[in-house]
Amino acid sequence: MSDLGSTFLELDRLSDEDRLLRDEVHRFAVDVLRPAAAELDSMAPQDRAAPGSPFFSAMIELKKLGFHELFLPLEPGTEDPDGRIAESKALTQAIVLEELGWGSLGLATAFACDMVPFMSVASFGSPELKKEIFEPWLNDTEGKFHGCWAITEPNHGSDYVSLWDTGDGEAPKAQLIAVKEEGGWRLNGQKSAWVSSAPVATHVALHAQAGAEGNLRRGLFAVLALDTPGVTKGPVTQLLGMHDEPMGELFFNDVWLPDANVLVPPGPLYMLFGDQLLCMTSALISQVAVGVARAAFEEALDYARQRVQGGKVIAEHKNVRLTLYSMFEKVECARAYARKALEHVVRETAMLGGTAPATAFASPRHTRAAQILTKRIAFEVANDAVQIWGAGGLSEVALVEKLFRDTRCLWVEDGTLEMLALNAATDIVRHYEHETYNPSEVMAR
Question: Is the model's pLDDT at 410 over the cut of 60?
């Protein structure tokens, strides 16, 4: 595995603090994330989530460094008329996520998933819920708390993405049902084997159908401790790649969910919230995908400078040079667009500390495009890296082999690229001429 460092030429103007942060996160990626990811990649599935797994030691070190604190919402009422606060905050977050993605796609994804339930409580929870759930997580330096986001079900994966393109009559019924009772809800059903961090999580951000007669569009969003009676975890799922992020099923058998834990109750706001949550996660995972793409490019560049074929290093061969340029171009374009999309989301979305008025919301078409573009580029660059390495790139001892497997998973994770593209296309067809995002149109669908 190569390490070309973190001192490459940036188009963004970085402050001294930004550069120091980038160097710190990069060194952490080299010293902690890459060794942990390599070890996890070769372990049996259940061992990845067992006590003493490198997953936990990596997460503990992440929490000790306090990188999660950089994603806290700004104080309510913060004014940012020229957008400079949002721009600076987004750049800081992008730097962190790119370097974490460079180190390990799975562990960077776990870092992002961890934040979803707790940041949701920080933004929408009651003072009591914040004290009970958010504050212990925020101050945790021992890895006692870890979050996951459970949305997909065995029969419903990309269906959740397509909900914003369909009417109520076209939405299928969910497999996790919440039935209203006095003071709360009774949960029964399950979530799919693709829930990132589920086997290692202590808390879950949960989507459930509200009422047995409802459907996926008629849901609620809640946060729940996974040691609640009736919750069980399935085995760790073995996938093609991303072995450094344990995934698995969650089962709910007569589980009690208090009303206080429901952050978004059933009603028109549920669809709007889900739409904006996807905007946020799309913007965040885009930065991680850029980091993975850069890792693959740098592996290819370093190898091409050293590998001799035809009497000279292969970087001197024109076809290899052109491939390296194409890879560089893709990484740079991905970074530029992903950072702009994240800046937009930070400015407009309260969950990431938005400073815009309450009537402002993030753009689905642009955030979906960021996710689609960066994930597509990450796989294409990893594929080119394997080609430059040749037969050596097919060996499991080569990092590019792991990156190839990991980036292929990105084309399915969080909704297939095709479904994300169709979702963005619907927004384009219906609202292209609109200068602002109109939430009433989402709630009316």
Answer: yes
Q: Please report the pLDDT score of residue 309 as a whole number.
A: 95
Hey, what amino acid is at 181? Answer: E
SS3 category, 190? strand
The count of other CB atoms within 10 Å of the CB of residue 212 is: 10
**Residue 147, beta-bridge partner list:** 203
Sign of CA dihedral 67, 72, 78, 84: positive
* Beta-carbon count within 10 A of 260 CB: 15
CB 118 within 8 A of CB 145: yes
Q: What per-residue confidence (pLDDT) applies to 196?
A: 96
pLDDT at 167: 67
Give me the amino acid identity at 189.
G
d(CA 83, CA 344): 9
pTM > 0.70: yes or no: yes
Closest to 336 in 3D by CA, of 309, 370, 367, 382:
370
User: Could you tell me how far CA 320 lies from the centroid of its own chain?
Assistant: 32
Q: Which residues touch 153 (CB under 8 Å, ≥6 apart)?
A: 174, 175, 176, 189, 190, 191, 192
Q: Which two tokens stand for residue 343?
A: 């800046």
User: Any idea how long the chain is?
Assistant: 445
pLDDT at 356: 47
Nearest CA to 257 out of 332, 358, 310, 185 is that of 185
Show the CA angle centred on residue 201, arms to residues 199 and 205, nearest 5°: 115
Q: Which amino acid is at 167?
A: G
pLDDT at 428 over 80: yes
CA dist., res. 103 & res. 93, Å (int): 16
Token representation of residue 385? 């890296």
Q: Which CATH superfamily is domain 1-445 in?
A: Butyryl-CoA Dehydrogenase, subunit A, domain 3 (1.20.140.10)
Cα–Cα distance between 326 and 306 in angstroms, integer?
19
pLDDT higher for 268 or 25?
25
The confidence band for 79, taking pLDDT boundaries of 50, 70 and 90, is confident
Arithmetic mean of pLDDT over the chain = 92
Average pLDDT of 415-430? 91
Q: What is the reported pLDDT for 257?
A: 98
C-alpha span between 293 and 382 (Å, rounded) = 7
Tokens 């990845």 found at = 48
Q: Where are the domains of the chain?
A: 1-445
Q: What are phi and psi of 174, to 5 degrees?
A: -80, 170
CA nearest neighbour of 174 among 205, 206, 219:
219
Decide: 370 and 364 in contact? Cβ < 8 Å.
Answer: no
